[in-house]
Amino acid sequence: MRTPLIAGNWKMNKTVEQARALVAEMLPGLQAVPSVERVLCPPFTALMPISAMLVGTEIGLGAQNMHWEAQGAFTGEISPGMVKEFCQYVILGHSERRTYFGETDQTVNKKVHAALANQLIPIVCVGETLEENEAGRTAEVVARQVCDGLKDVSKDQAAKLVIAYEPVWAIGTGRAASGEVANRVLAEIIRPALAGLFDTPTAQKIRILYGGSVTAANAQEFFGQPEIDGALVGGASLKPAEFVNIAIAAA
Ligand code: PEP
């Protein structure tokens, strides 16, 4: 059995003061949700203050990105060791990083190795663009992102990984995939790719989330699907009641 996981990707939103207010509002409701792993991913500047608020709770903290090197002349970057000071998780290869910041399957792979070497749980994002979807290239693109992004990861380490299937056309658009379509991508593309990379028992242990315009209203459609183990939530994670209700739907 895979434990459901709900992660909120705040993207580039919230000052420290705003972040504290948001967490204070959602924390009681979020803490009351049983048997769902719950993770908040605020911007870097809010990681330290929010980590202090989460002490003594079972709510995890994640960064939205990181560099793969331990230290050095990489102006503007954050190292795995710095992330690890506050976080247990790190989102890697989000489509916005791939689209706007030149992230590739190869840089994602370096980051995955760095995260695992630092005992961070990587939430590795994959997903096809609208153009790729319409050209019938979803299987090819998503399988390549999984295989190249996870290249040379050991079987032991793989079981800790989390994959987020986020069709780019569904992110922030209000146009979510249907639960059935998303489940099919997980069942027919992602889990078989994981089984090919590792083996079937390991592939069965890896949690795969859906992401893309998840709301409290449509969450059940996704969580009712056998392959979908939770959600990576963007916009709705900034609305306390909405995010709590999405976590409740996953329980
Ligand atoms: C995301 O940023 O990972 C995401 C899924 O965004 P949204 O829920 O807003 O579509």
Automatic annotation (TrEMBL):
<feature type="binding site">
    <location>
        <begin position="9"/>
        <end position="11"/>
    </location>
    <ligand>
        <name>substrate</name>
    </ligand>
</feature>
<dbReference type="InterPro" id="IPR013785">
    <property type="entry name" value="Aldolase_TIM"/>
</dbReference>
<dbReference type="GO" id="GO:0006096">
    <property type="term" value="P:glycolytic process"/>
</dbReference>
<dbReference type="GO" id="GO:0046166">
    <property type="term" value="P:glyceraldehyde-3-phosphate biosynthetic process"/>
</dbReference>
<protein>
    <recommendedName>
        <fullName>Triosephosphate isomerase</fullName>
        <ecNumber>5.3.1.1</ecNumber>
    </recommendedName>
</protein>
<dbReference type="InterPro" id="IPR020861">
    <property type="entry name" value="Triosephosphate_isomerase_AS"/>
</dbReference>
<dbReference type="InterPro" id="IPR000652">
    <property type="entry name" value="Triosephosphate_isomerase"/>
</dbReference>
<comment type="subunit">
    <text>Homodimer.</text>
</comment>
<dbReference type="Pfam" id="PF00121">
    <property type="entry name" value="TIM"/>
</dbReference>
<feature type="binding site">
    <location>
        <position position="172"/>
    </location>
    <ligand>
        <name>substrate</name>
    </ligand>
</feature>
<feature type="binding site">
    <location>
        <begin position="234"/>
        <end position="235"/>
    </location>
    <ligand>
        <name>substrate</name>
    </ligand>
</feature>
<keyword id="KW-0963">Cytoplasm</keyword>
<comment type="similarity">
    <text>Belongs to the triosephosphate isomerase family.</text>
</comment>
<dbReference type="GO" id="GO:0005829">
    <property type="term" value="C:cytosol"/>
</dbReference>
<keyword id="KW-0413">Isomerase</keyword>
<feature type="binding site">
    <location>
        <position position="213"/>
    </location>
    <ligand>
        <name>substrate</name>
    </ligand>
</feature>
<feature type="active site" description="Electrophile">
    <location>
        <position position="94"/>
    </location>
</feature>
<dbReference type="GO" id="GO:0006094">
    <property type="term" value="P:gluconeogenesis"/>
</dbReference>
<keyword id="KW-0312">Gluconeogenesis</keyword>
<keyword id="KW-0324">Glycolysis</keyword>
<feature type="active site" description="Proton acceptor">
    <location>
        <position position="166"/>
    </location>
</feature>
<comment type="pathway">
    <text>Carbohydrate biosynthesis; gluconeogenesis.</text>
</comment>
<dbReference type="GO" id="GO:0019563">
    <property type="term" value="P:glycerol catabolic process"/>
</dbReference>
<dbReference type="InterPro" id="IPR035990">
    <property type="entry name" value="TIM_sf"/>
</dbReference>
<dbReference type="GO" id="GO:0004807">
    <property type="term" value="F:triose-phosphate isomerase activity"/>
</dbReference>
<comment type="pathway">
    <text>Carbohydrate degradation; glycolysis; D-glyceraldehyde 3-phosphate from glycerone phosphate: step 1/1.</text>
</comment>
<dbReference type="InterPro" id="IPR022896">
    <property type="entry name" value="TrioseP_Isoase_bac/euk"/>
</dbReference>
<comment type="function">
    <text>Involved in the gluconeogenesis. Catalyzes stereospecifically the conversion of dihydroxyacetone phosphate (DHAP) to D-glyceraldehyde-3-phosphate (G3P).</text>
</comment>
